Amino acid sequence: MTAWLDWIDLPLEVGDALAPVVGAQAGEVLVADSTTVNLYKLAHAALDVRKGAIVARAGDFPTDRYVLQGLAVARGRDLRLVDDVAAALAPPVALLCLSHVDYRTGALEDVPAMTAAAHRAGALALWDLSHSAGAVPVELTASGADLAVGCTYKYLNAGPGSPAYLWVRSELLPTLRSPIWGWFAQRDQFAMGPEYDPVDGIGRFLAGTPPVLGLAAVEEGAALIAEAGIERLRDKSVALTSLVVALHDAWLAPLGFELGTPRDPDRRGAHVSLRHPDAWRICRALIEHADVVPDFRRPDSIRYGLPPIYTRFVDAWDAVDRLRRLVEGGVHLQVEAGTARVT
Ligand SMILES: Cc1ncc(COP(=O)(O)O)c(C=O)c1O
After folding, report:
1. How many CA atoms lie within 13 Å of 23's alpha carbon, on the beta-carbon side?
2. How does residue 6 score in pLDDT terms, banded at 50, 70 and 90?
3. Residue nearest to atom 8 of ligand 1 (CA)
4. Which of 102, 252, 296, 331 would be 257's cystine partner, CB 3.0–4.6 Å?
5. CA distances from 319 to 8, 134, 274 (A)
6. From 50, 57, 80, 154, active-site residue
7. What is the pLDDT of residues 202-229, one digit of tens each?
8. Which residues are within 8 A (CB) of 147 and not within 5 positions of it... i.e. 6 or more apart?
9. Quick check: pTM over 0.85?
10. Distance 254 CA to ligand 1 centre (A)
11. Ligand 1 atom nearest to CA at 164
12. Chain segment 274-283, per-residue pLDDT in tens
């Protein structure tokens, strides 16, 4: 590496590398900023071109809901945070924002169907792919979707703090404008002129200097997923989650667990949610005493993420076996109901 020219276009180049993983075309994906910031940029841009309410799921990931709450206040829009999305799409609706895979339950949304419903209400459809891309096939172009965002530190394996991505359907690009008028989107960036004049392409959603080390990790992560093949990864992922579901039924259900994830493999993503009234203490006990690292998700879920690219079947088996032994032995009952900041 020398200077500028070695990395200045990385957000676009890495976006092009990621495009096939999410079923998008080259020139439509940008890797930059965080998922939160990208969601804000795209939702704001959508509200510029569509009138009406914002619709999202009441149980969606917090940052998505907070961004939409802030935008609803700032832009004077009605925000419908609901369980029944289809019923809430009474026109006029400007924006439908949904997660492809639910962060808690692992339930998989039907992107073409929900996008079509959004379009019938006059809305643009914005998808959060954080829990799907890299483990579940995503076909953005074919689905009819308009906009998408996602992180790269889950199934794209780029590590904590790696930059997120955003996608805009190319037909929409000329009509949409980022609310952050940064110099990296400027047509003649180094002319440093007086007026903001963004480029025509996806680069118009850039803001400032990209995180180069994180981008290098995203490029590697995307290449690994492409090499493994998303269909093969999905097959393995379904087999992994099916194994955990079967072990739940055999070992955990008699101990008071309930499955929080759809049983139909076509309706779930790559994680499994195991519900138990003592989920928080069980999660702490798994981390502290069993060398298993799940996530606790309120109110009662133990979430096992099973990235198919590196999770072995024996790992999935051991993770449930250790959980069973731990609960049978009452190890979790010794964990003090504490105040761990991260769950
Ligand atoms: C569905 C979903 N959206 C957004 C985020 C937040 O992303 P970021 O911290 O990159 O803004 C997460 C983080 O886990 C997530 O799971």
Report:
1. 20
2. confident
3. 35
4. 252
5. 43, 22, 12
6. 154
7. 999 999 999 999 999 999 999 999 999 9
8. 42, 45, 46, 124, 125, 126, 127, 166, 167, 168, 169, 172
9. yes
10. 34
11. 10
12. 999 999 999 9
